[in-house]
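Researcher: Going back to the complex we discussed earlier. I've cleaned up the inputs and rechecked each line, so this should be the final set. Can you rerun the prediction on the complete assembly and write out the structure?
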Amino acid sequence: MCGIVGLFLKDKALEPQLGALLSDMLITMTDRGPDSAGIAIYGPSEAGSGKITVQSANPATDFKGLKAALTKQLGVAVSVTVRATHAVIAVDVAKLDETRTVLKELRPGVTVMGSGESVEIYKEVGLPKDVAERFKIGSMGGTHGIGHTRMATESAVTTFGAHPFSTGPDQCLVHNGSLSNHNNLRRELVRNGLSFETENDTEVAAAYLSHKLATGSNLGAALESGLSDLDGFYTFVVGTKSGFGVLRDPIACKPAVMAETDEYVAFGSEYRALVNLPGIEAARVWEPEPATVYFWEH
Amino acid sequence: MPTFDLASVPLRDLNQALHAVEAGKNETTFEVVNPRGAHAVAVGIDAPVRVDVHGSVGYYCAGMNAEATVTVHGSVGPGVAENMMSGTVVVKGDASQYAGATGHGGLLVIEGNASSRCGISMKGIDIVVKGNIGHMSAFMAQAGNLVVLGDAGDALGDSLYEAKLFVRGAVKSLGADCVKKKMRPKHLALLADLLAKAGITDVKPEEFTRYGSARTLYNFNIDNVDAY
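Model: Rerun complete. Updated structure for the full complex:
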C-alpha cells in the first residue's frame, strides 16, 4: 500500500515549519505502511557548499573522527553533523564527488543516502513517528520535502529498501505502487553506467529519471518519457533542488490527493494527511489526473 | 439529535449508534462533525435514519448503506456508497475513485466531480454526478443508471452489461462493447425521474446522450477459437 506525502512551500514564512508539517503528514499515513519511513528535506543551502547524507549501522565508530579524517584527506574544511544513524557532511560543492570516493576508503561501512546542494535524506526501519523523532525532523526548516511510509512489496524491509531514493544530485523520489519491468530497466540503466544499491523497483524509477535528467531532459520531459518506459502501478512524488513533481500511471489506481493555496502545494496519499495544514479548509483540493505530469518550481 | 464529534469520540461509537437504531425509534437524525478524512464513516446502516456529515471523509463512507439518507457536506475518498443496497447518499463536494461500486440499489448523488471507475460493476444503483467523471467509469456495470451532467473520461462503459449510461457532456472515449444508443421516450422519462430525484431542475433529459452495451461480448464467438 504505502503512504506518500509532499509539501512544497511558496510562502517563506512557513519555511521554519517544513519539518514539523511534513512529519505530521507522514505520521498520519502510518497505517498505510508501518515498516519503514523516510523523509527528504530541501533545507537552506549556502553558495558553493554541498552536502552528503550518509548512514551507518555503527554510527559510534563510523562517525567518530570522521570530520578530521575527511579534512585531512580532502585538504578543505569539512563539517559533520551527526543525527542518530545518519550524518550530514558539508563540503565545498566542487569536492562532492571526491568526498564520496574518499569516504568509501575511509569508512567502507557507510552508505550514501543522497547528496547535492540542498537535500538531506533520513530513512530507517520503524514507524514514521519513531523515525521522525530519531532524526528530529520536526525541528528542520526548508523549502520543500517529500516523505514515505513503506509497506514492503518489492524488496526486503531494510533501511536501504526505505524511500526516498536518491540517484542524482539533489534528486529524490518516493513511490506508492509496484513496477513490473524494473529488472529489465535496471539492466539497461547499468549498461548506461548507472549503479544500484538495492533490488528495489523504486530505485530503478529514481535512476531512470536521473539518467534522463543527466542526458538532457528537464524534469517535465523525464516524467513524460517515464509514462511510456515504466510499466506498472505508480504514484510518484519527486523532488529536485528547486522543484516538486507528481506523476500517476495511466491506470491511476494508487490514490493521490493534492491541495494548493497561495502558501503551499501539498500532496498526500489520502486527504487525512492534509487536514492539519494551515488554511486547508480554503485550499483548492483535487485528485491528480492519470498520465499527467504536475510540476512546481521556485 | 445526537451529534458525534469525531475529534473527540471514536468512529466506532458513531457506527455502533447507527447500527443500534431499532424500528420505531424516535432518534432518526444524526450529525457528524470533524470527520477530518476518516475512513468508514456511517457504514453499514440498515435503518431509515438521516446522517449529516460536516466535512470531508476518507475511504468507504456510507458503504453497504440500506434505507438511510447520508449527506456529506464536503468531499469523499475512494469507495463512497460502495455496495449500497437502498437509501440515498449525497456528496456536496467531489468523490474519489470507484464511487458507488457494486451498488445494488438506492441513489448516489455527487454534486461535484467523481474520479476514475465511478459506478464500476454497478448492479442496480442509480448514480447522478453533476460534474465530470474519470476514466474507466461503469466498467462491467451490470444494472442501474449512471447519469453524468458533465464529461466522461476514457473507456466509458468498458465491458458493459445492462446498465444505462446517460452523459450530457463529451465522452473522451468508449470502452470495449460500449456504444451510443438512441434515446427513446421511455429513456427520457427515466432520466427525467432520476434528475428530479437528484433535485436537478435546470437540465433537460433531451440534452443527454445514452450509451449502452452492444452485447457483442455476451457470447463466445467460434471465430475466435484460435485466440485461445
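Model: Worth noting: The helical segments of chain A are 18-28, 59-62, 66-74, 96-106, 128-135, 182-191, 201-214, 219-229.
Researcher: Good, that matches what I expected from the previous run.
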